[in-house]
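Hi U.,

Before I forget, here's the chain from the pilot set. I'm dumping it here mostly so it's searchable later in email.
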Amino acid sequence: MTVLIFGFPQDIHIHAVRWALDKIGAGHQILYTPDMPDRLRSSVRISPGTDAMASFRSGAVRGTTGSYDTVWYRRSGDVMRPPGMSQADWAVSARESDHLIRTLRRCLAPGAYWVNDLEAREHARLKVPQLVAARNCSLTIPDTLLSNDPTEIRRFYAEHRQQGVIFKLNVQTYWADPNGASHVLFTTVLREEDLVDDEALSSCPAIYQRKVEKAYELRVTCMDERCFTVRLDSQARAITHSDWRADLCSPLKPRLHKLPPRIEERCIMLMRKLGLAFGCIDLIVTPQGEHVFLEVNEMGQFLWVEHDEPGCPMLQAFASLLVERRLAPNSRLVGDDSVCFREFVESGAWERACAHDDAHHTRYDALRAVSEI
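Structure:
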């Protein structure tokens, strides 16, 4: 059993899962996309009489087609500009490096179990197809507009003026301004004065949704047929009313929650329809008890849940999914209770892994990485 992991340096999820795989005796290799082209060397060859064969080498790590039982596509990561390369040359190199990486992903492990499948991943990252699939699985969805047309945005706002309209980006993103200050835009309640400037509305396409009243919110982490659900009391604080992630100084604490069987069945049905083996679903529970689907993050973060709610064995369950390549509601998890996030943190493995990344891999700018919570 060997697991191939695609990602980028300094990702605590990658290193926690690698530590867990070591604990249970499962082999694994990692391929960091940002190492291309400075440190990563790879090739793909196809001949008239043979299938495409891929290989890569990065330091002491070597990989070839057919060597892997499971692939965990954690994150993509941008290829990184080598020191000293001109911007003009990098424009060509970056395009060709990205093409090679995408080809490598498709040719290294064609028969492996993927978390998640390449085509399914790309489809599921689009919010409107998610909503279509959720509606077809009998999940309630909010009225939604994806647009950069000021006329359509104003019309949508007028239709839902009484309930209210929220604004959010397709991808939760952090960015830096020219002065070096970092910024993040969370889900925001739209105001009439936000609709005045045509240029502002048309410059950045975004999602506009009818505001849904909340009693609380749920995070449902689906691993194959097993769901781990926690409750987030976002309405307890003014700062988290519109977005439970918004309190960066004191994040909301998740608490174990029993999802109604009919809603859990629909969540699993949605995962099947989207072709995903893993995903994090966000739901609103209204004051009337209705469950409203917001989105599914096909590779969302999950260790923060176990950090604050040890009753959710996320790390052990995810390692089990990679090794067993399935996870039923009553499946026995691989390893024992020591395969947990607390043990990982206390072991010092995270600090050692970061030092190794710094020494042997290309530095990756975290602000260039999409924040997928």
